[in-house]
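Before any further analysis, we paired sequence with structure tokens, yielding the entry below:
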Amino acid sequence: CGFDKGFKDFLYPRLGKRAKSFASLFEHLKVIKNPLIIETGCLRVPNNWEGDGQSTFQYDWFARDYSGQVITIDINKDSIDSARRACSGITNTILNDSVETLNMLSKISSRPASLIYLDSFDLDLSNPMPSAIHHAMELMAARGLIGQETIICVDDFDVPPLGAGGKGLIVDQLMHSIRAEVIYTGYQKIWKIK
């Protein structure tokens, strides 16, 4: 079946705490012609829907139906191999450091990204700052990929018992300072650049 029916019938019921945010994200992406989706941190364990969200698989399916392209970046070879097995040729996998790769893509891309999804550095609930700093560094490295209407999403934002911030603590402050529109806030946080 197509992505829209598949998301409603198959994906949404399996996504748990990420279901509403992904639904909101895809509604915003649907209006973008030939979307370019860039993700840091790819699918690691197949079928771990509620644990990891399987975002790479979702983006691949969406891009096939909406004439898009997906680039996913991960430093772990096993994760890249899992993503390659789960996805079609629409998805380009890059085995490298995400900050370095985003910086390179910023310099060579001919167009801004439609979505930049930040999820590469695992959140440590007892010490969230390293993850928050890394995701802020990714955002800065991706500056050349960000244009008007680019959607930015960070995973593991409002995580119990830590509360709001998580991986996106610094990204949230940056987005607030440029008055980015908040599309969704919860376990994931999503902004649109105005």
Notes: The mean pLDDT is 96. Residues 129-141 form the longest helix (13 residues).
